[in-house]
Amino acid sequence: EKAVNLKKDLAEMQEWMTQAEEEYLEKDFEYKSPEELENAVEEMKRAKEDVLQKEVRVKILKDNIKMLATKVPSSGQDLATELNVVLENYQLLCNRIRGKCHTLEEVWSCWIELLQYLDLETAWLNNLEERVQMTGNLPDKLDAVNDALESLESVLRHPADNRTQIRELGQTLIDGGILDDIISEKLEAFNARYEELSHLAVSRQISLEQQLQTMRETDHMLQVLQESLGDLDRQLTSYLTDRIDAFQMPQEAQ
Asked: Do the beta carbons of residue 160 and residue 233 sit within 8 Å?
């Protein structure tokens, strides 16, 4: 009777494993939204816990069959053969569910990481847009133009590492058919805004550089002219002091 019960337990265990495999491993999942992906991750975590909890039952079956084999070798030998099959299938099921759970957790982590990098780069784009707008109505002063140019250049020196991560993470998920529509839409919007603002910022940078160069050249010309007028003023003053007749002066002094 004990052998019959153990045989029944082995059959039930095998049936449960078959159902678990069908439910957790053979279903075709499509992750088209973050909610679907998150739910799949949680479901696989529960599946992993559920399968690992059966380890106690498997151990009890193993111990009982070993005990029976010592008392009734003939019955125990047949059950031991069936037990080995169940143990092998159970270990395989555990490994596969652990593997799928780990993969889904990695995918979810990849999605969260992508969102974090997008947030960082979006904040940088907002800052860049603000700096570009600040260069729109500058006072016609050299210091103001110079400060605006340095401020814009400091933002433009932003490293490209984050954008590289965004591209690689996004492509990894899209290649796996995971959240591909959502990610493609996000990346398209981000890249379009990045290209637009970058071109605008570089164009404004060149314009400010040219404006600054013109202002510096004008300042230099005014300085030279001022110095020349100062020299002329001193020369004319000396002429007047010495009471020199205008017709006796050089042509330029007249």
From this structure: no
Does residue 120 have a pLDDT over 90?
yes
Of the pLDDT bands very low, low, confident and very high (cuts 50, 70, 90), residue 1 is low
Domain count across the chain: 1
- The answer, yes or no, to whether residue 254 has pLDDT greater than 60, is no
Q: What secondary structure, in 3-state letters, does 168-202 show?
A: HHHHHHHHCCCCHHHHHHHHHHHHHHHHHHHHHHH
25, 94 contact by CB (below 8 A) = no
Whether 252 is covered by a domain: the verdict is: no
Of all residues in the chain, the percent with pLDDT exceeding 70 is 91
Domain with 71 in it: 1-211
Q: What angle do helix axes 180-241 and 161-175 make, rounded to 10 degrees? A: 160
CATH number of the domain residue 52 falls in: 1.20.58.60
Give 94-120 as a DSSP string: HHHHHHHHHHHHHHHHHHHHHHHHHHH
